[in-house]
Write a structure and sequence with these properties.
Elements lengths: L2 H42 L20 E11 L2 E10 L5 E3 L4 E5 L9 E4 L12 E3 L4 E9 L14 E5 L7 E4 L5 H4 E4 L3 E2 L5
Parallel strand pairs: 5-10
Antiparallel strand pairs: 1-2, 2-7, 3-6, 4-8, 7-10, 7-11, 8-9
């Protein structure tokens, strides 16, 4: 009969200990929730970072360029000539890449023209972005063979040429007397700053 009171006394502390442990877990969870809310509030009040936008420089086009033939040289049937662009506009512009060409007769009729990018004699140039200030100059070199090939006895002789600046659709027409053989094959260099052929 005395065993029952002793069993009840042992059970009571165990029950109280379990309740106490559960209460501690609840308090920890509540603290964690409070910390998360504080972090969210800090993020919401952060100030945006100020940025500065630099004005962009437009590309050079037919409208703000002039073109002229510069120096030329030749050896062993290969002729090279330099064509120079000048910025005639009122602001800086950029040139980057290869020009286009179309040979014309004295009457303006199109002649066979096969432009090959790279391989121009005396001009090994990697395309790069060139900033051309007002009155600044940039050039490219064209080269060709004037030796007939196959059944050719003579090669077409041009009187002028249409030059399309890199990345443009308009063209400039200048006098240019050349006689490229091999179906009008002309190697052109990328545009570079200044001039190269002395």
């Amino acid at each position: 009969m005395r065993i029952k009171p002793l069993f009840g006394a042992l059970f009571l502390p165990i029950t109280l200990a379990a309740c106490s442990h559960s209460a501690n877990l609840t308090t920890t969870s509540s603290t964690s929730t409070s910390t998360t809310a504080t972090g969210t509030s800090t993020s919401a009040t952060s100030s945006p970072v100020a940025t500065t936008t630099k004005p962009s420089i437009g590309r050079c086009t037919r409208g703000n360029l002039s073109a002229a033939k510069g120096s030329s040289q030749g050896a062993a049937g290969t002729i090279a000539a330099e064509i120079t662009f000048t910025n005639v506009g009122t602001s800086t512009c950029t040139l980057d890449g290869y020009p286009g060409l179309q040979l014309l007769s004295s009457t303006g009729a199109a002649l066979p023209t096969n432009v090959v990018r790279g391989g121009a004699a005396g001009a090994s140039v990697t395309p790069s972005n060139i900033a051309l200030v007002t009155n600044g100059k940039a050039s490219f070199v064209l080269s060709f063979s004037d030796v007939p090939t196959g059944n050719q006895t003579t090669c077409p002789n041009s009187a002028q040429v249409e030059i399309t600046p890199p990345n443009d659709f308009g063209y400039l027409t200048i006098p240019l007397v050349i006689s490229p053989c091999d179906s009008g094959k002309i190697n052109v260099s990328a545009v570079f700053a200044g001039t190269q052929i002395p």
